[in-house]
């Protein structure tokens, strides 16, 4: 029955708010950045688990636009970590058939970070098993604001009629235009909020808030999350 297959299905697009690195470090008497370093291990595990489970899109929230407001040393440590990780992880991502794409406001990055991010995108462009979307310097409200600006420009310059604007027009104007909406959003560390992540796209996503801190998140935790998803019944406003 289609109802059963819907229930048992693997989400096509999983999005994760990777939270709890700082608390993980503090609990061990370490500096916060050590939690971020440990968090890269969880990224590696989750990518492997996503590929193994046949998930097609995995979006990871790595740095919000609001995160620029953290102490300079932490921001610097995160930027260094992004650069190092993309260099270290690229061969394994290519081998697993993972294509990496970045969403967010690239203009705020240093030249080095920007070129490293572009490099991982071009080097992994042939990957066909999993699209790994990294949200870095991402803000959903910024994204929506940018979309409104570009739609308004199209109307002002006569390329579009206001009455022809549909949900699709808006979806196609977002950074995520190429991806299906997330089916399942996981936020680790027990916080139950979206923190400016995929607000438009999350309309009918299933949400899951495990207590596990991100650096402790394992492949088994990802498998368990998929079981939770499979047990949910998505109704989309119907009965
Ligand atoms: C998530 O962990 C990683 C980023 C936001 C970059 P946090 O750094 O927010 O860790 P907590 O929430 O302070 O524990
Ligand atoms: C959200 O986590 C951003 C990322 C995980 C990258 P935060 O830790 O920055 O969010 P708040 O401050 O708890 O809402
Ligand atoms: Mg946090």
Q: Can you tell me about this structure?
A:
- With about 240 residues, the chain is α/β, with parallel strands linked by helices.
- It has a single domain, classed as Decaprenyl diphosphate synthase-like (Undecaprenyl pyrophosphate synthetase), CATH 3.40.1180.10.
- Helices cover about 45% and strands about 15% of the residues.
- The chain contains eight helices and six strands, in the order αβααβαβαβααββα.
- It has helices at about 1-10, 20-25, 30-55, 70-95, 110-125, 140-155, 165-170, 220-230; strands at about 15, 55-65, 100-105, 130-140, 185, 205-210.
- Strands 3-4-2-1-5-6 form a six-stranded parallel sheet, with helices on both faces.
- Helix 2 (about 20-25) crosses helix 3 (about 30-55), helix 3 packs parallel to helix 4 (about 70-95) and helix 4 (about 70-95) packs parallel to helix 5.
- The protein is globular.
- It starts with a helix and ends in an 8-residue tail after the last helix.
- Residues about 1-5 have low confidence and may be disordered.
- The protein binds 3-methylbut-3-enyl trihydrogen diphosphate (IPE) (2 copies) and magnesium ion (MG).
- One 3-methylbut-3-enyl trihydrogen diphosphate (IPE) binds next to strand 2.
């Amino acid at each position: 029955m289609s109802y059963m297959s819907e229930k048992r299905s693997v989400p096509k697009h999983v999005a994760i708010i990777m939270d709890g690195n700082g608390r993980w470090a503090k609990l061990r008497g370490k500096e916060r950045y050590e939690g971020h370093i440990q968090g890269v291990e969880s990224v590696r595990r989750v990518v492997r688990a996503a590929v193994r489970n046949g998930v097609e899109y995995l979006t990871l929230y790595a740095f919000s636009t609001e995160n620029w407001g953290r102490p300079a040393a932490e921001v610097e440590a995160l930027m260094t970590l992004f650069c190092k990780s993309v260099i270290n992880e690229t061969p394994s991502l290519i081998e697993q058939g993972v294509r990496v794409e970045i969403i967010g406001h690239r203009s705020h990055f240093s030249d080095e970070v920007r070129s490293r991010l572009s490099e991982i995108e071009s080097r992994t462009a042939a990957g066909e098993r999993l699209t790994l979307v990294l949200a870095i310097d991402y803000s959903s409200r910024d994204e929506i604001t940018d979309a409104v600006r570009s739609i308004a420009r199209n109307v002002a310059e006569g390329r579009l009629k206001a009455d022809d604007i549909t949900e699709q027009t808006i979806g196609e104007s977002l950074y995520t235009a190429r991806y299906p909406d997330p089916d399942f959003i996981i936020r680790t560390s027990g916080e139950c909020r979206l923190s400016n992540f995929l607000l438009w796209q999350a309309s009918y996503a299933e949400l899951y808030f495990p207590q596990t801190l991100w650096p402790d998140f394992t492949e088994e935790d990802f498998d368990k999350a998929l079981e939770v998803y499979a047990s949910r019944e998505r109704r989309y406003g119907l009965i």
